[in-house]
């Protein structure tokens, strides 16, 4: 099977990477079902990368319907060690304006119906998650954004991403609550990915692409669907440039990451006592600890 050290998950508006060369589609099965779509493997800046459209290339999956475990398992099967997740978000702060890019370093979970662990069925794992993003990968990502000097884009290093259930957007009361918590942006997808990537010992960072101010903003009513779609398109174009530059930098100097050994002290169940069926199901994660 083809291998790729760097993975990319594209969110709303980012359904393909135009700069990918020597492209092939890879169909993968996992113990958790099929991923959102076939994975696209190709070369970017001379480096093999794996790309997945989070909602499917035709955007047919709602946030609650996303096969998060299958998506991350598929990336692990391909050998991904660094995962860049692009995500459309609403802004909760005046300074994070539409078209800006935020590299969050924290998450708050407001989801209700998401399974965010691979484990169970006889194997108990508690990963450390106080710092849910790989700082080294996030720094490479942020430096890539800064180096490009994109028009009308301000980079925000750090910030908190509220992950809500959806698919409806926030009420005004919720939006004001999130602002009172000091959160920076709100989205519907990235926290389950971050948890599962950590369990999979994959370094993970989010490129949050602001499409609009959430409904707290006094000018919210002047935001039109056409404006949001236009921002999605511009964000997708900008994101592809950022990802290309990030891949170039990662290929030249892949940073160490604590995420790559996240399970070392997290497995509480003695594996020689664990059910064989569960060990087999999770072998891709457990093989170096057996």
From TrEMBL:
SUPFAM superfamilies: Purine and uridine phosphorylases. Residues 5-247 form the Nucleoside phosphorylase domain. Its EC number is 2.4.2.28. GO terms for cellular component: cytosol. Substrate binds at residues 188, 212-214. The keyword Glycosyltransferase applies. CDD domains: MTAP_SsMTAPII_like_MTIP. It holds the Pfam family PNP_UDP_1. The record marks 170, 225 as: Important for substrate specificity. It is an enzyme of class 2 (transferase). This is S-methyl-5'-thioadenosine phosphorylase.
């Amino acid at each position: 099977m083809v291998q790729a050290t760097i993975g990319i998950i594209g969110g709303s508006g980012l359904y393909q990477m135009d700069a990918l060369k020597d492209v092939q589609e890879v169909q993968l099965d996992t113990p958790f079902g099929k991923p959102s779509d076939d994975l696209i493997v190709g070369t970017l800046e001379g480096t093999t990368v794996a790309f997945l459209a989070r909602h499917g290339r035709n955007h047919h999956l709602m946030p609650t319907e996303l096969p998060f475990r299958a998506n991350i398992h598929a990336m692990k099967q391909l050998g991904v060690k660094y995962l860049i997740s692009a995500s459309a978000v609403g802004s909760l702060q005046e300074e994070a304006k539409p078209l800006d890019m935020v590299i969050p370093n924290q998450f708050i979970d407001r989801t209700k119906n998401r399974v965010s662990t691979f484990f169970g069925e006889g194997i108990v794992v508690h990963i450390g998650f106080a710092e849910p993003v790989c700082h080294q990968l996030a720094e490479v990502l942020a430096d890539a954004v800064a180096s490009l000097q994109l028009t009308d884009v301000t980079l925000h290093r750090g910030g908190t991403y509220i992950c809500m259930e959806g698919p409806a957007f926030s009420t005004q009361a919720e939006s004001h609550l999130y602002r009172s918590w000091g959160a920076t942006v709100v989205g519907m997808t990235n926290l389950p990915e971050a948890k599962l990537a950590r369990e999979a010992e994959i370094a993970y960072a989010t490129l949050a692409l602001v499409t609009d101010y959430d409904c707290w903003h006094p000018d919210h009513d002047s935001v039109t669907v056409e404006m949001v779609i236009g921002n999605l398109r511009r964000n997708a174009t900008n994101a592809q440039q950022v990802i290309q530059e990030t891949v170039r930098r990662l290929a030249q100097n892949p940073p160490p990451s604590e995420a790559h050994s996240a399970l070392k002290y997290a497995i509480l169940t003695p594996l020689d006592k664990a059910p064989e069926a569960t060990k087999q199901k999770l072998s891709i994660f457990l093989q170096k600890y057996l």
